[in-house]
Design goal:
Elements: H1 3-45, E1 52-53, E2 65-74, E3 81-84, E4 88-92, E5 97-104, E6 111-120, E7 128-133, E8 139-141, E9 146-155, E10 170-179, H2 183-190
Parallel strand pairs: 1-7, 2-10
Antiparallel strand pairs: 2-4, 3-5, 5-9, 6-8, 6-10, 7-9
Length: 197
Amino acid sequence: MDKDKLKKIEARNKKTVLIVFGVIVGMTLMSYASVPLYSLFCQVTGFAGTTGTGVAEARKTLDRQMTIRFRTTTSDDMPWDFKPETDKMVLNVGEDGFINFIAHNPTSEPVAGTAIYNVTPLKVGRYFKKIQCFCFEDQILTPGQSVNMPVLFYIDPKIAEDANLRDVKTITLSYTFFRKDSEALENAIEAPDDISG
C-alpha cells in the first residue's frame, strides 16, 4: 500500500475517533443538562401539568368559576403526615386563592423533604400561577413538629382565550413529598407524570 493511501486511512480514522469522542462528550453533557432543561421547558410551556410562577399584581377577575381540588401523597420512604386544610375551593378565574397544607413529622428524628407538584388536567398547567409556595424550598421538620405550608395562587385570566380549555371546570393541584436527596425523588423528577392525579 502506498504512503498516500495510508495517510488518507489514518486521517479518516483520526476523524472518526474525534467524531465518536465528540458524540460521547456531547451525550454526557446532555444527560447532566436534561433534567434542568426539561424542568425549564415544563415551567415555560406548562407541559406535564407544571404550574407557572405568578406575581401578586392587579389582574382582571372573570365571572367564570373553577373548582380547585387538592391532593396530597408522600413517597413510601417519607414518614410525614401531609394533607390539605380543605379538599377543595371554588374561585373565579383571576381571583387569588389561598390554601394551607399541614405537614407533621411523627418520628423522633429531623426529616428533610422536597415537594413535587403538578396540576391536572395537564393542559391547564401554564395558566395555574403560584405566587407563594412551600414547594419552592426544601422543608425540614424536627421530631414531632407540625407546620402550615401555605400556597397563594390564581388561574390566569388568559385561560379564557384558550379554546381548548373552555370545557375545564375543575383543576386538581397535587403535591407529593419525598425525602430530600432520595432515589424516589430523583425518579419522580425524571418522570413527573407519575404523580399526576
